C-alpha cells in the first residue's frame, strides 16, 4: 500500500461543517420524532405482564439484558432468567433445549449477533425442529452509528430464506407491547427486531383500534396518490413523511406490514391493485432481499404492475456516525423519504 | 439401578448387547452398501452401556417425561444409534432393511422428526452440548431427576460452540448433564489430534469446570464404572466421560484400514465382516 492510498484510507469520509456536526452520543439517539410520546422498555414490560400467568415463559440473554430491555424481566422473574454470557451460539442452542422441555424461551441479543454469528444454531436447533423459541434482537437495520459491526442491515435477507421462521419488524411501542403475547401464542419460532429504551407510540395516533396480528398488515392512513408499503420504524417515518407531503397536496396511503414473513399477500395485492397510485416500499434494511423485493415478488407473480419504487438502505457497508446524520445520508429520514417520493411523482 | 430400563433386567450380557449393535450396524451398512461403519463398530460398547446399564428409559414410550435424554450430536453416527434403538426395542427390527431408503424412518444422518428415540437433529457439529445445556436447565427448572447425555465426537472439540456450551454447563452447575466424547482420533481429513483440538483433553475439560473421567471406550467394565460414577457424583458440576475407542472395533481387517472415517467396504466384504464378527460372538 502506498503512502498516498494510506493517507486516503484514514481521511474523513465526509466533510461536515463543524457547527453542523452531531455528537457521538447521538449514535444511539432516540428514534422518536418530536411530538411523540414514548414508552420505556415496552418489550421488557410486556414480557413481565405475559409471564405472570405463563410459568413456561423464560428469558435468556447473551450479556445484553440491559440493552434489549430484558433486564425488566430479569428483575421481575429472576428464577426464570438465564444469563448465558457473551456466547450467542450456546444461548440459542440452550433456548432450543429449554423449548424441548416445554418452555417458551425469549432469547435476546443484537440482531447482528443472532443473524450472522448464530445462524446455523437458529437454523438447525430451532427452525428445522419448529420449536417455539422467540429471538428478540435490538439494533435492527440502521439504529446505531457504531458502524458495520453493530448495524444489522441484512438480517431480513438472511432470515427470510429460513423455513418455519416468522419474522416481525415492529414499528413502535404499540406494536411491541402487542407482539409479545402474540409471539408466545404462535407455535413456532419467531425472530423480532426490537426498538428498545424510550420507544415512541405512533400507531395509536392513526388507528386507536389497532390490533397487532401475526401475518396481518394494517392500513394506517389512506391516500389516492401514493401507497407506501412499510415495515418497522420506516412505518413511522412514512407516516411523518405523508403528513409533510399532504401539505404539498400529495395524498399518501401507508400500509404497515409488521410481519415480514409471512407477508400479508392479500392486503398488499388489494391495495396495490387500486389503480393510479405509485407503490413505494420502505424498510430499515438493505434493498437486497428484504421487504421491497418480497413485495415486488408478490406483485410480479400476480401480474400487478404499478409504478414501483423501493426505499431502503444501499447495498454497501454503512458508515459510523451520528444516527440522525446517517438516516439523512442513507435516505431513511422523514425528509429523505418525502423528497424521494416527491421526486418519483 | 434405573427404574424404567426394562432391558437392564434381562440377563443378556452387555458384551452381547454391544455385539448385537455391531451386527445390526453391519447389516444396515450392507443394505445401503455404505455407512459410518467404523464409528458404529467403535462406539457400540458405549451405546450398549448407555442403553442397557445407565439410561432410565421406557422402550415402549420413547417420549416418557421421566426418561433420561440421550442426544446424538453426531448425526452421521445415526447408523450406530439406530442399531442401539433397535436392540433396546425402541425401533422395530423389521425396519433395519429400510435404512437410508426413501420413506425410511432411519435417514443416513440422524434427525429428531424422523426417528423415535432420536432426541435432536445432529449433523451440523457442535450443536448437541448446547442443546443439552438448555434441556438440563429445563429439567432442573421442572424439578426432574432425569439426566441429559450428549454423545459427541472428538471432531466436535474443534467447534467453538462446544466450548461455549462447556463453560455454560459449568457456570450453571449442571450436574444433570453428562457428556460422552467418542475419541477415535479420526475425522474427515485424518486424525482429529492433527486437525485442531489436541491433548491434553482431560485438562481442558477440567479447566472448564467439568468432572472428567477418561476410559478405554471399548472396555465395558471400565465404561460401567465411569457411567456409575458420573451418575452418582455429588458435586454440583457437569460430567464428561472421554472414551478412547477404536474405529471398526470387532472387525480386525477393517480396523487395519488407513482411512476409517468413511470406510470403503467392497460388496463382497460385508459377508466377510459379518463372518469375522461372528467368530468373536460373546455369550
UniProtKB/TrEMBL annotation, chain A:
Keyword ATP-binding among record annotations: no
Keywords from the named record: Thiamine pyrophosphate
A Pfam family it matches: Transket_pyr
Keyword Cell division belongs to the record: no
UniProt cofactor(s): thiamine diphosphate
Superkingdom to which the source organism belongs: Bacteria
Residues in Transketolase-like pyrimidine-binding domain copies: 36-201
Similarity annotation: Belongs to the transketolase family.
Protein name, per record: Transketolase
Lineage, highest ranks first: Bacteria, Pseudomonadati, Pseudomonadota, Alphaproteobacteria, Rhodobacterales
UniProtKB/TrEMBL annotation, chain B:
Family under the similarity heading: Belongs to the transketolase family.
Name used for this protein in its record: Transketolase
UniProt keyword list: Thiamine pyrophosphate
Pfam family, one: Transketolase_N
Required cofactor names: thiamine diphosphate
Organism: Paracoccus tegillarcae
Residue ranges of every copy of the Transketolase N-terminal domain listed in the record: 30-262
Entry-linked InterPro entries: THDP-binding, Transketolase_N
Amino acid at each position: 500500500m502506498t503512502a498516498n492510498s494510506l493517507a486516503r484510507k484514514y481521511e474523513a469520509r465526509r466533510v461536515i461543517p463543524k457547527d453542523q456536526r452531531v455528537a457521538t452520543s447521538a449514535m444511539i439517539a432516540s428514534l422518536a420524532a418530536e411530538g411523540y410520546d414514548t414508552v420505556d422498555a415496552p418489550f421488557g414490560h410486556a414480557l413481565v405482564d405475559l409471564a405472570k400467568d405463563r410459568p413456561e415463559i423464560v428469558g435468556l440473554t447473551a450479556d445484553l439484558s440491559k440493552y434489549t430491555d430484558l433486564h425488566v424481566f430479569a428483575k421481575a422473574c429472576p428464577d426464570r432468567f438465564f444469563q448465558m454470557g457473551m456466547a450467542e451460539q450456546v444461548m440459542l442452542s440452550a433456548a432450543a433445549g429449554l423449548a424441548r422441555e416445554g418452555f417458551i424461551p425469549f432469547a435476546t441479543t443484537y440482531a447482528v449477533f443472532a443473524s450472522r454469528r448464530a445462524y446455523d444454531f437458529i437454523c438447525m436447533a430451532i427452525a428445522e425442529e419448529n420449536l417455539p423459541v422467540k429471538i428478540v434482537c435490538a439494533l435492527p437495520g440502521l439504529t446505531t452509528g457504531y458502524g458495520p459491526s453493530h448495524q444489522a442491515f441484512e438480517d431480513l435477507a438472511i432470515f427470510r430464506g429460513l423455513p418455519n421462521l416468522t419474522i416481525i419488524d415492529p414499528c413502535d411501542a404499540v406494536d411491541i407491547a402487542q407482539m409479545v403475547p402474540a409471539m408466545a401464542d404462535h407455535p413456532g419460532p419467531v425472530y423480532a427486531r426490537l426498538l428498545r429504551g424510550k420507544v415512541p407510540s405512533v400507531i395509536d395516533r392513526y388507528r386507536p383500534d389497532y390490533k397487532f396480528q401475526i401475518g396481518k398488515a394494517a392500513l394506517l392512513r389512506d391516500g389516492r396518490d401514493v401507497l407506501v408499503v412499510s415495515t418497522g420504524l420506516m412505518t413511522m417515518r412514512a407516516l411523518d413523511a405523508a403528513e409533510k407531503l399532504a401539505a404539498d397536496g400529495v395524498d399518501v396511503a401507508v400500509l404497515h406490514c409488521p410481519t415480514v414473513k409471512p407477508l400479508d399477500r392479500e392486503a398488499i395485492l388489494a391495495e396495490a391493485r387500486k389503480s393510479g397510485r405509485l407503490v413505494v416500499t420502505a424498510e430499515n434494511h438493505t434493498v437486497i432481499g428484504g421487504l421491497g423485493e418480497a413485495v415486488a415478488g408478490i406483485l410480479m407473480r400476480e401480474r400487478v404492475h404499478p409504478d414501483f419504487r423501493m426505499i431502503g438502505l444501499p447495498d454497501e457497508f454503512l458508515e459510523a456516525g451520528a444516527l440522525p446524520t446517517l438516516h439523512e445520508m442513507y435516505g431513511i429520514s422523514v425528509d429523505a423519504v418525502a423528497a424521494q417520493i416527491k421526486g418519483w411523482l | 439401578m434405573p427404574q424404567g430400563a426394562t432391558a437392564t433386567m434381562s440377563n443378556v450380557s452387555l458384551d452381547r448387547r454391544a455385539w448385537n449393535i455391531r451386527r445390526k450396524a453391519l447389516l444396515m451398512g450392507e443394505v445401503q452398501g455404505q455407512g459410518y461403519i467404523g464409528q458404529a463398530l467403535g462406539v457400540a460398547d458405549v451405546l450398549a452401556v448407555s442403553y442397557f446399564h445407565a439410561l432410565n428409559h421406557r422402550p415402549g414410550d420413547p417420549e416418557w417425561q421421566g426418561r433420561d435424554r440421550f442426544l446424538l450430536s453426531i448425526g452421521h453416527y445415526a447408523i450406530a444409534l439406530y442399531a442401539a434403538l433397535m436392540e433396546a426395542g425402541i425401533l422395530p427390527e423389521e425396519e433395519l432393511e429400510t435404512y437410508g431408503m426413501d420413506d425410511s424412518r432411519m435417514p443416513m444422518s440422524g434427525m429428531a422428526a424422523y426417528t423415535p428415540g432420536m432426541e435432536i437433529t445432529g449433523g451440523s457439529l457442535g450443536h448437541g452440548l448446547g442443546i443439552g445445556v438448555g434441556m438440563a436447565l429445563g429439567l432442573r427448572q421442572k424439578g426432574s431427576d432425569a439426566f441429559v447425555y450428549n454423545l459427541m465426537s472428538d471432531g466436535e472439540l474443534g467447534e467453538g460452540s462446544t466450548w461455549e456450551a462447556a463453560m455454560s454447563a459449568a457456570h450453571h452447575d449442571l450436574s444433570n448433564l453428562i457428556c460422552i466424547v467418542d475419541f477415535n482420533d479420526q475425522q474427515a481429513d485424518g486424525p482429529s489430534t492433527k486437525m485442531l483440538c489436541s491433548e491434553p483433553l482431560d485438562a481442558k475439560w477440567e479447566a472448564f469446570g467439568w468432572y472428567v473421567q477418561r476410559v478405554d471406550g471399548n472396555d465395558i467394565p471400565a465404561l460401567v464404572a465411569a457411567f456409575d460414577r458420573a451418575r452418582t457424583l455429588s458435586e454440583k458440576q457437569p460430567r464428561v466421560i472421554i472414551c478412547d475407542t477404536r474405529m471398526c472395533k470387532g472387525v480386525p481387517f477393517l480396523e487395519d484400514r488407513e482411512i476409517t472415517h468413511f470406510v470403503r467396504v467392497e460388496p463382497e466384504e460385508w459377508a466377510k465382516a459379518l463372518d469375522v464378527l461372528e467368530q468373536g460372538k460373546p455369550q
